[in-house]
Amino acid sequence: MQQANPSPEKPFPSHPLHVPAFRAYLTVRFAAVIAQQGMTLIIAWQTYNIARLTMSPALAVTQLGLIGLIQFVALFLATPLSGLLADRYNRRVLAMLTILGQLASALILAVSSYEQWIGLPLIFTLAALLGVCRAFQGPSLGSLTANIVPLPILPRAFALSSIAWQSGSIIGPAISGYAYAIQPHFAYAASAILFLVSLLMLALMGPVKQAQPDRKRHPLRQIVDGLAYVKRNRLVQATITLDLFAVLLAGTTALLPVYARDILHVGSKGLGHLAAAPGIGAAAMALFFSIFPMTRNVGVKMLASVVIFGAATVCFGATAFMPAMIQMPVALGAMMVWGAADMVSVFVRQSLVQLHTPDEMRGRVSSVSQLTISASNELGEAESGFLAALIGPVSAVILGGVGAIAVTLLWSRLYPELRLARSFDPPDVANN
User: How many C-beta atoms lie closer than 10 Å to residue 55's C-beta?
Assistant: First the structure.
């Protein structure tokens, strides 16, 4: 499959799905996300259960935070190099190597669970490996979209890519939760199969054109160039940092095992439902964007979505004080709204970063964006776990939601560029 490169006789495709390479790309994203999200859930569940056998509840919660911290440190150390490699070398091949590393991790976890010699040291080691793999996967795989889809239909391609991501986020936790309830190793075996599917689809995609790198410029200088671009472009900077601090404060996923086991009392199956709920809301929103692309007042809509994201987090945390009969329905509803609001923020950030960045720098700028996403996710999980150990999981969730709302109000004043952003078009395009 080749990159869409229409000639005068062959016009641009009117829809991303008309591009064969993009259809293969969607399959890669869908299968890989199911595998990743499923593994993430089961790793957290196993970590918490193993820790509870020998530790106090408070200390067991900190192990969930430690998992997030390990993955963030691994990703933080690898990210500067990953962005550079994605700009200097074949992005598709790099993505294949990262998928291969995750496939190996899934197989090790499956075998160790089956043989019953899995333990916290092994889980922590593989969590670090997964963090490194994702560090290199993000810039390489994420930058491919703009290389295979023409610019006029790129926002719609981002929406479809988000549907694949969010649909995988729905299906992955649910499949893994049910598979784990049968046999723990079934969940990891399913992830291994899906990683293999992703690997094969990347191989079948064929060569993809990308901008030629400036090999005369020193690699360290090129890394600095990527950071300087983000600093210089305040609109890109605003979207990246807002997402960083909002999700860092209001991330609840690390505490889902605690809520499922000790607060809502719904077990591993209920955990699967809770983990899938944000994906349901996000997928519905992404589907809406794929049919009715966002074109106006994108900055204000992002700010509003993050406020809703924080409010949904507060609502989820407050389920601990509700009657038992409505706890789970309210929790699921809050997490669906949480996911839908997060999808709006993700869609705006992804579109602005990709459309405002030259192709020869997309890998490095994407790596900066990925680092902030990881900081908000993995580091946010660490923050949630450690804070929950200090003040309790319920207080940690509610306080995080309030913090996300406060950060959004602050960012609307610090970055008027975001509040005033009317469309995704770069200034030179918007003014034509």
Answer: 15
Q: Are 53 and 118 in contact (CB under 8 A)?
A: no
224-275 per-position pLDDT tens digit: 666 667 677 777 778 778 877 777 776 677 788 888 888 888 877 788 788 7
Domain contains 301: yes
Structure tokens at 183: 């046999």
- The CATH number covering residue 160 comes to 1.20.1250.20
Q: Is the pTM of this model over 0.90?
A: no
Is there a domain that residue 288 lies in?
Answer: yes
- Please give the residue range of the domain that contains residue 120: 16-209+219-430
- Alpha-carbon distance of 55 to 143, in angstroms, equals 43
401 in any annotated domain: yes
Q: Would residue 408 count as lying in a domain?
A: yes
Q: Is residue 330 predicted with pLDDT exceeding 80?
A: yes
Number of folded domains in the chain? 1
Q: 228 CB contacts (<8 Å, ≥6 apart)?
A: none
CB-based contact 92:21 (threshold 8 Å):
no
